[in-house]
Amino acid sequence: MKKRIMAIYDSDYGFGERFAEFVNFKERVPVSIVSFTSLKELSDYSSDHGIELLLISSNVSNDEIEQIGADRVVLLAEEKIISSNEPYPSVYKYQAANHLLREVMEGYYTDLEEQGYSALSERSRVIGVYSPVNRCLKTSFSLTMAQLLSRDLKVLYLNLEDCSGLSGLTGEEYKRGMSDLFYYYRQGSFSFGRLGTVICTWGDLDYVPPVQYPEDLAFVSSQEIAGLIKQISEESTYGTIILDLGQMGKRAADVLEICDGIYMPVKEDCVSAAKVEEFEAYLAASGHDSMMRRIQKINLPYHCTFGRKDNYLDQLLWSELGDFTRQLLRKQP
């Protein structure tokens, strides 16, 4: 999609410049943002350029806003509670940039879809991480790989566990996530715009918060999960999607079938080996035996020197697991 013009006006020069830099770095956002601290400069710019989305201080009068002639206006409010009498929607200014961006873009994405716009991109490469073995560092490995790949690629991390613990690791309280995407998909209303409204960011990595309740994952069929992931890979602008699959039992086979590559963390004890053998026997018996050629079994190094959980994601990159994952990725074509 061709990027459209979004303008931001705020008397705080640093705020506008920082937010513009953050937005312009995001390739998945279909707008290019220009920052202003002068209403006159904004007005002069609008006379020669069509502004499709204007993010502007709530201290500016409605008459002045109307003169700018933007197609869509969102107010930058300095208070969390805004009068419902305002003619324009508003967002709270003093929040994390990724939260602010999601709120601003939610209505804009909907408008674009109603006008018939859609994202065009090559299909994303899908990497699945799954193991029938418990306590094998599957999620730690998935998060490490996703963070490392996101330094050079546009990567989306999707956690398909019923209890992921991700909120505790990131310190975020999520209002939306995979539960919403499953709902949209089952209703036939999923789109690239819907995806954009639930994505969060950790460093360079984009991710969708996991399901809100375990039941949200349990009541979705494996075919629906696979269908949603396939649609995301076809319609999003991500180069790679990392799927962190939980204990889905034998339902995992249908989801893994759409993966281009599969990593399976394993352990060397006899019980773990028996679980892997049973899963492989199921793949052969259920017609998924060709999938076994795409499965790469890995023995992950354990780490026990980490500190607080709020630093866990950063520490992963410099742990033995981080070194192991770097070496593994260097060997991949």
What does this structure look like?
Helices cover 41% and strands 17% of the residues. With 333 residues, the protein is of the alpha/beta class. Helix 5 packs across helix 14 and helix 7 crosses helix 10.
Structural class: alpha/beta
Q: What is the approximate shape? A: elongated
The ordered string of helix (H) and strand (E) elements is EHEHEHEEHEHEHHHEEHHEHEHEHH
The neighbouring-strand order within the major sheet is 8-9-7-10-6-11-12
Strand content: 15-25%
What is the second-level CATH architecture of the largest domain?
3-Layer(aba) Sandwich
In the CATH hierarchy, what is the class of the largest domain?
Answer: Alpha Beta
Our Rg estimate from Cα atoms comes to 22 Å
Descriptors:
five-stranded parallel beta sheet; alpha/beta; 41% helix; Rossmann fold; 333 residues
Can you summarize this structure?
The chain is α/β, with parallel strands linked by helices and 333 residues long. The chain contains 14 helices and 12 strands. The chain folds into 2 domains: 4-114, Ntrc-like two-domain protein (Rossmann fold, 3-Layer(aba) Sandwich), CATH 3.40.50.10850; 125-330, Rossmann fold (3-Layer(aba) Sandwich).
List the helices and strands and how they pair.
Elements: E1 4-9, H1 13-25, E2 31-36, H2 39-48, E3 53-57, H3 62-68, E4 73-77, E5 90-92, H4 97-114, E6 125-129, H5 138-149, E7 155-160, H6 166-170, H7 178-187, H8 192-196, E8 200-202, E9 205-208, H9 214-218, H10 222-235, E10 240-245, H11 252-256, E11 261-265, H12 270-285, E12 295-298, H13 312-316, H14 320-330
Parallel strand pairs: 1-2, 1-3, 3-4, 4-5, 6-10, 6-11, 7-9, 7-10, 11-12
Antiparallel strand pairs: 8-9
Helix pairs in contact: 5-14, 7-10
